[in-house]
Amino acid sequence: MSSKILRFTLNGEVVEIAVSPEDMLVDVLRDKLELTGTKKGCGKGECGACTIIMDGEAVNSCLVPAMKAMGANVETIEGIGSPEKFHPVQETFMDLGAIQCGFCTPGMIMSSKALLDKTTSPTSKEIKKALAGNICRCTGYVKIEEAVLAAAEMMREKQ
């Protein structure tokens, strides 16, 4: 099949890239754009390792045909902080021990960020719902929830 040009905003910058109609967004991000922070887990939308934010919503990039991102605003883990200045969610995940092996962490952080972009005062129920599509096999979710609450507080203080 012939390739098509995909144009979208990725981490604040407009990108254009040739993709095949059958390409999934996770593969374009990882293999063509070399943004390997987005993990490829189950490939079926069940584990959440590939979670990104597209047009303000947390989505499993393994379920998104690449061409569906045409004109979209996409954020990946690489676009939300820097080694010099972590995003509050990244900072609290590290500080509070919400990271174990790290494989699920980018997806967890992106789901958490999507929630906190909408509310900096989430309830425990809202956090659990936002993270329901993200599986961590290393730990319970207590430290993760604590990290999201701490990040929310940090974000409120900066307002």
Described by strand count, sense and barrel closure, the largest sheet is: 5 strands, mixed
Structural class by sheet pairing and helices: alpha+beta
Number of strands: 5
Shape: globular
Q: What fraction strand? A: 15-25%
Helix content: 25-40%
Q: How do the strands line up in the largest sheet?
A: 2-1-5-3-4
Distance linking N and C termini: 49 Å
Give the integer mean of the pLDDT values.
96
Question: Can you walk through the features of this model?
Answer:
The chain is built from five helices and five strands. Strand 1 and strand 2 (13-19) form a beta hairpin. A five-stranded mixed beta sheet has the order 2-1-5-3-4, sandwiched between helices. The chain is of the alpha+beta class and 159 residues long. It has helices spanning 25-32, 88-95, 105-118, 124-130, 142-158, and strands at 4-10, 13-19, 51-54, 57-60, 73-75.
Task: Furnish the topology, listing elements before pairings.
Blueprint: E1 4-10, E2 13-19, H1 25-32, E3 51-54, E4 57-60, E5 73-75, H2 88-95, H3 105-118, H4 124-130, H5 142-158
Parallel strand pairs: 1-5
Antiparallel strand pairs: 1-2, 3-4, 3-5
